[in-house]
């Protein structure tokens, strides 16, 4: 090509994903804290497991939606589809990649509306069962609220906020159990993201599948077992009322078994394609 493409669509995708990440990030830490504050202690693992299970079902439906969009031509609605001579199996085919962003954005917007109606605080189950709070305790609460409201009314300097943030971050990262869990989660998610990113490409290259079908297979076979596993883990923790040490041992055992099973991927594959100059000589 004499003229290079000068499209800036990637900037919009970058900014859109940045906004999406900013909106999605508070759900996990603040949502778990909300559940932990206002649910029974033995029920929290199940609720957290439900939260993560739904989080895994989202990518599954995303892959299925991507599979559907990949079957549609990229300029659908703008060109006469009868004039298109190529099929999705053709290497020149470009699917309607933009349609998934549009549908996902609308659904995300609609799903965010109910969060506006959640109360700031709820009554704990114990308080609803036997509401025997003493008058002195109520007075102390009201006094504490007044103190907090007066503290909130005073504007704080950025230097003080940054200093407090640094102190909190140092305290959190110096917690050995939390730091170990953070490293473990980082390794797990790094491997899982790589798995989801490259496995569809591997299926296309090695097994001759279309983009649509490979996305469909990944969404149908890879993500539901993970969601089911998370939900079952929450149920097991609730049933046996595991402590932190018990939950750590349980997580280590399951992770080790998963690692052993994942090693079997090294024995699955096909012979390399015959490519002149790469796998065979030009003669």
Automatic annotation (TrEMBL):
It is a multi-pass membrane protein. SUPFAM superfamilies: MFS general substrate transporter. It is found in: Cell membrane; Membrane. The gene is Slco1c1_2. GO terms for biological process: monoatomic ion transport; sodium-independent organic anion transport. One of its GO terms (molecular function) is sodium-independent organic anion transmembrane transporter activity. It holds the Pfam family OATP. The chain crosses the membrane at residues 44-65, 95-118, 177-196, 216-237, 249-268. This is Solute carrier organic anion transporter family member. Belongs to the organo anion transporter (TC 2.A.60) family. It comes from Psophia crepitans. One of its GO terms (cellular component) is basolateral plasma membrane. Its main location: membrane.
């Amino acid at each position: 090509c004499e003229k290079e493409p000068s499209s800036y669509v990637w900037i919009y995708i970058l900014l859109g994903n940045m906004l999406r990440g900013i909106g999605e990030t508070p759900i996990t830490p603040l949502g778990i804290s909300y559940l932990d504050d206002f649910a029974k202690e033995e029920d929290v693992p199940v609720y957290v497991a439900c939260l993560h299970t739904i989080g895994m079902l989202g990518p599954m439906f995303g892959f299925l939606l991507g599979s559907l969009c990949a079957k549609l031509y990229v300029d659908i609605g703008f060109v006469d589809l009868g004039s298109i001579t190529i099929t999705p199996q053709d290497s020149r085919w470009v699917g309607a990649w933009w349609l998934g962003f549009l549908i996902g954005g609308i659904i995300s917007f609609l799903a965010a509306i109910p969060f506006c109606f959640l109360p700031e605080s709820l009554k704990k189950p114990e308080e609803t069962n036997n509401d025997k709070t003493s008058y002195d305790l109520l007075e102390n609460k009201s006094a504490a609220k007044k103190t907090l409201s007066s503290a909130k009314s005073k504007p704080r300097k950025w230097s003080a906020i940054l200093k407090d943030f640094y102190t909190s971050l140092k305290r959190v990262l110096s917690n050995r159990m939390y730091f170990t869990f953070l490293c473990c989660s980082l390794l797990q998610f790094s491997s899982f993201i790589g798995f989801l990113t490259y496995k569809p490409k591997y299926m296309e290259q090695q097994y001759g599948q279309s983009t649509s079908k490979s996305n469909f297979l990944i969404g149908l076979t890879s993500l539901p077992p993970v969601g089911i596993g998370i939900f079952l883990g929450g149920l097991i923790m609730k049933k046996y009322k595991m402590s932190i040490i018990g939950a750590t041992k349980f997580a280590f055992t399951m992770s080790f078994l998963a690692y052993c099973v994942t090693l079997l991927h090294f024995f699955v594959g096909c012979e390399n394609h015959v490519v002149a100059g790469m796998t065979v000589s030009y003669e």
